[in-house]
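Here is the promised in-class demo. Please do not try to memorize the tokens; focus on the logic of going from shape to residues.
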């Protein structure tokens, strides 16, 4: 019942403020047809990430966890003509779907999809990035946050998806993904170089949340 209401409100938000978009619809349909899990950010969340990146004038964006490129399209569209998004994806099948959808959206020139374990790829990447979106395996969240911080400059924004997980974040026995989120919270808590909060969300994706950190 409650989840239905969350979905109806999300539909109202999308209808009122986000609107339909052929390239994003295509990306969603392609991901579905390719058998990818239906875990992309929602439309309202995608636009929120887009607006955040846009509001800080981001020119270089890093994404960890591409899936079918849905959030990458939102983020790349926040970039100016010369801006670039680097997005990291473990699964070559996912990356292929993402590249096709990004091409269909006319964004191939702005986006580089790199295939591999982000834990292996990140140490060789050079910053600074203005905006980082962490949305891959939750077990690695602390390591990804540390890398995102290394790749940031003062004023950079780091956003992390799925930090509430229907409340599992407060359960010390909530499983390996919740434990990964908790290790990241602990790291952020002890990190004087960032100011951070987390906000719970409900909607198409159930009860979850984002962590936002600004690098000082
Ligand atoms: N950001 C996407 C959703 C990402 S889902 C969107 O909102 O549209 C998480 C993705 O992270 C999956 O495609 C998964 O294959 C990828 N992933 C999982 N472990 C990874 C790792 N170690 N390195 C890079 N990508 C990983
Ligand atoms: C899962 C991963 C995500 O990135 C997400 O937004 C929702 C669910 C998952 O692995 O279950
Ligand atoms: Mg996610």
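The designed amino acids, position by position:
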């Amino acid at each position: 019942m409650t989840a239905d209401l969350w979905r109806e409100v999300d539909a109202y938000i999308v209808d009122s403020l986000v609107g339909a978009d052929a390239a994003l619809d295509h990306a969603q349909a392609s991901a579905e047809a390719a058998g990818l899990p239906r875990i992309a950010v929602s439309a309202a969340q995608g636009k929120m990430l887009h607006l955040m990146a846009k509001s800080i004038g981001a020119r270089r964006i890093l994404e960890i966890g591409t899936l079918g490129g849905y959030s990458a399209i939102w983020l790349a569209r926040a970039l100016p003509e010369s801006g670039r998004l680097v997005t990291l994806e473990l699964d070559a099948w996912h990356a292929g779907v993402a590249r096709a959808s990004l091409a269909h959206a006319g964004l191939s020139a702005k986006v580089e999809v790199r295939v591999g374990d982000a834990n292996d790829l990140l140490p060789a990447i050079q910053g600074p990035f203005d905006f980082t979106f962490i949305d891959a395996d939750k077990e690695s969240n602390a390591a990804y946050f540390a890398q995102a911080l290394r790749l940031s400059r003062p004023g950079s924004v780091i956003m992390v998806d799925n930090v509430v997980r229907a409340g599992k974040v407060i359960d010390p026995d909530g499983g390996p993904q919740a434990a990964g989120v908790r290790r990241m919270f602990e790291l952020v808590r002890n990190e004087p170089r960032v100011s951070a909060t987390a906000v719970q969300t409900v909607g198409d994706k159930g009860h979850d949340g984002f962590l936002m950190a600004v690098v000082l």
